[in-house]
Amino acid sequence: MWIPTEHEKYGVVIASFRGTVPYGLSLEIGDTVQILEKCDGWYRGFALKNPNIKGIFPSSYVHLKNACVKNKGQFEMVIPTEDSVITEMTSTLRDWGTMWKQLYVRNEGDLFHRLWHIMNEILDLRRQVLVGHLTHDRMKDVKRHITARLDWGNEQLGLDLVPRKEYAMVDPEDISITELYRLMEHRHRKKDTPVQASSHHLFVQMKSLMCSNLGEELEVIFSLFDSKENRPISERFFLRLNRNGLPKAPDKPERQCSLFVDLGSSELRRDIYITVHIIRIGRMGAGEKKNACSVQYRRPFGCAVLSIADLLTGETKDDLILKVYMCNTESEWYQIHENIIKKLNARYNLTGSNAGLAVSLQLLHGDIEQIRREYSSVFSHGVSITRKLGFSNIIMPGEMRNDLYITIERGEFEKGGKSVARNVEVTMFIVESSGQTLKDFISFGSGEPPASEYHSFVLYHNNSPRWSELLKLPIPVDKFRGAHIRFEFRHCSTKEKGEKKLFGFSFVPLMQEDGRTLPDGTHELIVHKCEENTNLQDTTRYLKLPFSKGILLGNNNQAMKATKESFWITSFLCSTKLTQNGDMLDLLKWRTHPDKITGCLSKLKEIDGSEIVKFLQDTLDTLFGILDENSQKYGSKVFDSLVHIINLLQDSKFHHFKPVMDTYIESHFAGALAYRDLIKVLKWYVDRITEAERQEHIQEVLKAQEYIFKYIVQSRRLFSLATGGQNEEEFRRCIQELLMSVRFFLSQESKGSGALSQSQAVFLSSFPAVYSELLKLFDVREVANLVQDTLGSLPTIVHVDDALQAVKLQCIGKTVESQLYTNPDSRYILLPVVLHHLHMHLQEQKDLIMCARILSNVFCLIKKNSSEKSVLEEIDVIVASLLDILLRTILEITSRPQPSSSTMRLQFQDVTGEFVACLLSLLRQMTDRHYQQLLDSFNTKEELRDFLLQIFTVFRILIRPEMFPKDWTVMRLVANNVIITTVLYLSDALRKNFLNENFDYKIWDSYFYLAVIFINQLCLQLEMFTPSKKKKVLEKYGDMRVTMGCEIFSMWQNLGEHKLHFIPALIGPFLEVTLIPQPDLRNVMIPIFHDMMDWEQRRSGNFKQVEAKLIDKLDSLMSEGKGDETYRELFNSILLKKIERETWRESGVSLIATVTRLMERLLDYRDCMKMGEVDGKKIGCTVSLLNFYKTELNKEEMYIRYIHKLYDLHLKAQNFTEAAYTLLLYDELLEWSDRPLREFLTYPMQTEWQRKEHLHLAIIQNFDRGKCWENGIILCRKIAEQYESYYDYRNLSKMRMMEASLYDKIMDQQRLEPEFFRVGFYGKKFPFFLRNKEFVCRGHDYERLEAFQQRMLNEFPHAIAMQHANQPDETIFQAEAQYLQIYAVTPIPDSQEVLQREGVPDNIKSFYKVNHIWKFRYDRPFHKGTKDKENEFKSLWVERTSLYLVQSLPGISRWFEVEKREVVEMSPLENATEVLENKNQQLKTLISQCQTRQMQNINPLTMCLNGVIDAAVNGGVSRYQEAFFVKEYILSHPEDGEKIARLRELMLEQAQILEFGLAVHEKFVPQDMRPLHKKLVDQFFVMKSSLGIQEFSACIQASPVHFPNGSPRVCRNSAPASMSPDGTRVIPRRSPLSYPAVNRYSSSSLSSQASAEVSNITGQSESSDEVFNMQPSPSTSSLSSTHSASPNVTSSAPSSARASPLLSDKHKHSRENSCLSPRERPCSAIYPTPVEPSQRLLFNHIGDGALPRSDPNLSAPEKAVNPTPSSWSLDSGKEAKNMSDGGKLISPPVPPRPTQTASPARHTTSVSPSPAGRSPLKGSMQSFTPSPVEYHSPGLISNSPVLSGSYSSGISSLSRCSTSETSGFENQVNEQSVAPGSGSGHSGSEELVRKESKTPPPYSVYERTLRRPVPLPHSLSIPVTAEPPALPPKPLAARSGHLENGTRRTDPGPRPRPLPRKVSQL
User: Fold this and answer.
1) Mean pLDDT throughout 41-46?
2) Claim: this prediction has a pTM higher than 0.70
């Protein structure tokens, strides 16, 4: 039976359990579980990581842990009772674990590894804590390390700052908010600003000395030197080196490195240096022979210096090399370091160029104990400690030192009868009173053990040597008395023996007879002469002699006069036990000299402080002993001395001696009667304050009052103990009288000097320290009343001195911090006076930092859950006194600008934070009663209104993100909890007082605004938290957003008709709230929109305002990342449900649908704009959204914003043409007016004209970069018109030049024709703007189908490519997947006019083939019926699919959606006809190019002829005969009669073309290819015979290719054809813009037998490289069996093949063409585009009867308008009578603009001398009738024989199919005048001369066709009026001006569909 557990509540899983049993709970090792029930070895419960899933698990798998249970029962909460640090570690490590893995994924390797090390460290420390064997101190240390690492990791990972108290996390509910703030601030500051260490230490490690001339042992002496004061400031670090310059004792690290300790901050200056002196141990002279002397001397070697400034940067200096200078002049050795510092080192030599001292240095900060901990390795290996000279900055009471420093300064010696000066060596001994030498008390420096004697270094031949060597003598105190130092002087001989001869000695006693030690300073000692054998062991023989020439002399003056030799030393004592001060000794021995007491007490102030603190206890005993002796006589003097000593301890140097005095008072003080005298003298001083002129001494007394009171209280206690509490009343009276005197003195106002106020300030600053002393004797209430009276007596006048005001506040602050204030009884007494002073200061806005600190302390003492009566009363008082002023203060300080300096800014943030914490503390403490009292306290509604507005504003400030640092989530949650509680209280007041007739919009608006920003806070968005953090927040506070949302809804419902005031203002804020992904909040808030719609409908009959606001805000909010698909569905469903019964349901549904569709697009847009997405998807999505704003919402501003976003995307993707079209959308919205426009996006404030001009220039630039120059020309003209109308000729000139440059680029630069691809996006997984739609996409340059398909699959990595071209079924549409269907399509230009006109260069045509395309085509071959294996052509049908787009390409996107699709089927006969048309046209083109010498290489023509003839001979064309010319087919298809005839015509035409081609081929074929030519001729006759053709000679002479019947597919223009028979449409295979289209299938789809023939017939082999290798080839492309379209089958020619090469002269094209690879070859080289013959008649105009030729659905008779007989000759076409409309000649206008555009200008240069005519007309073109005589004047030249040696006009006319590239119309004129075959060497001028002289050039048939000026269509003409010519762009300069748009030309022919926008006509 399952029973609830009592104690087994919490456990950790120690083995994984799979949960395979029924109801089993799967558990992983390490999971924590909460146990609910138990039964027979099983537990039932849940894992804390997933509390919703409960189950059973074996009890043996769980290790139980102690835990306490809160809320026992169903919702019980289990908290483990382990150490809170352990709990925190465990939860933190779990959170880190997940994030740590993410670091690896994000490739943040550095942090990943550092965090890994930290986690391992924490786990190791956790083990130590869990074991529980640590000492208390070690445990504390481990916890400190743990918390430091936890904080570091949290900071690095951006987690929250954890508030801690003594290393344990604190619960914010258990402490006051002010205390929480302080804890957070403390941790934050600790993290931000490390505390500056006051103590510093220098670590020095000696590595080696690098020097070339070593060979002797060395001594290296380091010390620190103050160059400012010219003295050493540290002891010496002494190191011995061996002969190689390495440390002598490598096994002892402490001998090689030292720590210079206790450097104060004042000593880290640039003028502190490390000095290094090097002494060698060896012979006297460095170069002496080895046997010269066996004795070793200490001799100077070198010196090095380094400034400590180099270490102040904090970097470790490893392997520093110090330059070592050698001393040339030994007499200067003592100051060599000073000279080097002063840069006087020129007099010294370096020891060597690469020599130096290698050392390692590091500056360490902190006290020595901290250094020992942090650098334990340094201390564990051993390091010597080098102290400062003398005491450190802070003297510690327990410090024991007795060091005497002796500096051997210099000597003055006589020659001693020698001719040269002596080599003097000094030896020093310490001799005790018994005459024995003290052993091991001479220290040369740290790093070297002390020695018993010292030998100085020797200066060569110097009778006045200066050594300046510092020694330390650490002599014990007990040895000091009676000891003396003896110095012996010896002359060191340089002879072989190297003798050292004693010639004198000096000595000095360490202590004088009166007990004083040797005074500090320099002493001149007498040198007593002696002999070598003098016995100095008997000290009695010389101690009676005088030792010094100074004040210390005895009476023996006679001995003095005899000696001239002297020796100087400097002594300095550093002792805590001995003194050199006689006054100090006199005072301590006062009983021996009672008469000197007064003098000794007076001199006490002159004694150095360090001497006093050394003997502090003795001194105090002396003072109180004197007071006991005679209080009347010495009372005042002793009091003053006591004050002096007390104030001495205030000094930071002696601050640490305060505990010594405290200990003395507690344990050693025995003056039981002293209190009387102390009170009496103190009162005497206080009474004199107001009268005394000089206040300095009185202020010293007041400063010492804390310790005076301590002595008074201790003395009284001793007295009470001794007497049983006698005289108690008297004592109380004395104290009260004293305090009355104080109150009187405090109440006085300062007049004049302000000395009184200074005394008041001094008293107040030390007065709070007295409270604790008074409490030892008096009751708490008594003391509180005394203090209240004293503080209450302060003058409250505001104009009191500011300094005194600050001190008053500090006194209040110390009072609040004192022990007295912690007691509730005394607190209630003191609180009013504290609040009074605070209120006063806050009102004046003074001393805010101090006020904040005091308030914080006040609230720290009031715990949150204190419901005691006293606390409630205190809150009453505080609310009444401070709430209002506190709110005002917060408003005031948050509205100030923040200070610029970082320190001030920190203070500013601190004070703001503290006041906020105080306010929150106060509000959290307030109960219902307090709120009710507060609201009742307002007398009028105005006061209440002001209060509510004020508190709402403050709450809004508190919610600001910058109010607390970003990682203070704990603090923010507490603040929010307080705010929401307060708002719930105050909303009642709002409802009761400000509704109905008292409605106040401002206060309600403030309320709603506060509620909205409260909900939107980042720290409340629980979805962003980790699961553990979210769980903790929900457990503690719940979801505060939902609570506030319910409150908003409730308050909104209360508004009634006043809701209208908030519509539409609150739509945006409420919408923002609903976008938060919290289902409950959304369900509460979304219905408010229905309410708003309802009220708006009532008010105005519609809800346009609601709709507009919703749409505006949705865009901005969703672009910020808010909202999701769930929200869209919820919004839709909730509102639709709400409006079901409304009368306005239809309009409501419409609004909801619009908003929902907008959300779909915005969500797609946001998803696409993510960092990883490709540009194509972003552009497509932006276009979708932009069109939605334009068409459905009509939001112009949003539309323009997205235009610019799209523009930026295009620029980034380098889609310059699309970028230009995009910017045109904005340009279209503007007019040429002077209307001022506001600043918008990146545009400045300017006129509409200036902005439009700027846009035009930017668009032109982008069209130029996108090589869309024709469009740029149109815009150049538009802006030129504007410049012209303003007579801005400068800019007009630039614009005209730009226009000219664009024309040049058209003719000279190569343009690649892009391929087009149809893409279908099927499946529900695609974004909304793509889902189940098909698009046509304009490919990139050189991009073929495979590359495009791969790009699309990369953009949609989850998509599946469909392998067929059939339309998908419904299952694909509805699939939860992504399917892509991609194949190439052929563009079908709207207008064939330019493409079919003769003489238009391919460079120009190429533009019209692939621009402004609405229609695309795709052909799919298939077999219908039975397939004939012998001849597949019989059943080979073509399914032709036409796609119509919503917008033409190119446009604002590289792809547009397909709007309509049409599918037709072409019969095998029609298919065959089209194939032959294409091949014939190809042959004509190649023959023409060869004839006009446009081909340098004849190979392409050879290959084409070979392919056609060879295929025909081997059954190619004959297959068509077999299929369609047989009787069965003709009988079964009677309707195809005309088509069969047409096929027959094409076959005959092909034969004619081939014969003519062979003639041309014969002319140009090289010698080595003659055999091939002969073979072709032979095969051609075989072909003719197979076709049943005999000879053409007769008809060829008249008309080489002539058919009586009209073509079934002709242009609708009513002009005769001249190129192909009867206007035959011959379509190039690779021209995607011709109509009808090329054959779209490949031979590979046919049978193997027929494939080669079809390939040759269709001409597709020409796209292969084999064209140039004279080998016929099969097709290069195929449609696979699965119909997956290859690039060639499913598209038009390769993009490169469609481009025009960059050529500068006319005929370069044909010459270079054969050298180009197939990818580079321009399409005109292989498939010249047919042109309309009528287009050659440039001087004619289009008549009204002309039909557009883009409709493929007209029947053949309709198309064949006026068919006339024609020869294959261009000039004979000219001679035909092209007269219509009453004899007028009809001709279409000439490009380069599409015919739909407004009449752009076109320049013409006439060949006649007459000036070019101008037409001022702006309307449609009027026809022009030329003179018939002039037209016929050239005559006919058409009767040349075909196969004769000369070229006929028929062949030369081929050149019109592929004209050379020329610039402008004049070159076209030249081209018509000079046959291109005449070679590229003929210049334009030669051609003109030829025309004028009427001498026809070779092969020319055009010499007189254009003899007169040709009037142009108005779109190309220059007006006759004297208007300036047109323009290039002004460089983006803003300009003013306005011109109305010119009238636009009407369209010359109907378009298949209307244009959606003005600009698309470009």
Assistant:
1) 93
2) no
